[in-house]
Fold:
Amino acid sequence: MTTTVATWNINSVRLRAALVVKLLNEEAPDVLCLQECKSPVDKIPMDLLALSGYAYVIARGQKGYNGVAIISRSPITQVGAEDFAELGHARHIAGQLENGLTIHNFYVPAGGDIADRTVNEKFGQKLDYLAAMKAYFKKTPPKASVLVGDLNIAPRKDDVWDHRKLLKVVSHTQVEVDALADVQNSGKWVDVTRQDIPEGQLYSWWSYRAADWDSADKGRRLDHIWASQDISNKAYGSRILRTVRGWERPSDHAPVFASFDL
Structure:
């Protein structure tokens, strides 16, 4: 049985509720994981989601920032909600589907603008968050699990528009790339997107600052789908829906998809 999972930093679920519904109606993933919902849970437009056939939602919310949600066609049970690095932020939620698949949805801190924790507290928080993720998955090895979300790191040279120019830019610095690799290795996670699309430039985020983001194409792959080693060979069909970045009043992220034959 196929389960298709999508992940999308929506940058305000209430502001872009119509876009969420549009994606659900047009692409029909079994599960959609959202980050940066910027909404208390009771303000998420559950009624609109239900009308599109997605009656099951688990979420953690905060007013105005952060926030994660997992939207599902079929029943999903919350099995985790960790406060990594004890930041007090709604950045993680985990749910389990009836077929046994566990989904971890993450919104890793962006880290601010300066890649130096001695002068930038936010960068330190990002590194601490990643270290806590590493410790968690080392202690609790994932099985039949998928990890998705805005991890706010583009790890590979071809995950950014210019590797050399971005080496000192937060999201592509070596210390961040190494920290993300430590998280991945701690759980023996497999990068499903790059398993399916091993070569070539691949982006999921384009800055609002670009006057013409499409033609400039100065993107980064910040959004990821990983699978635990025991189900990584069941993954296929990975794609990034770039066209969504061009919808009216869009998020600066595009949704990432992967399917699993479970």
Summary: Residues 2-261 form a domain with the Deoxyribonuclease I; Chain A fold (CATH 3.60.10.10).
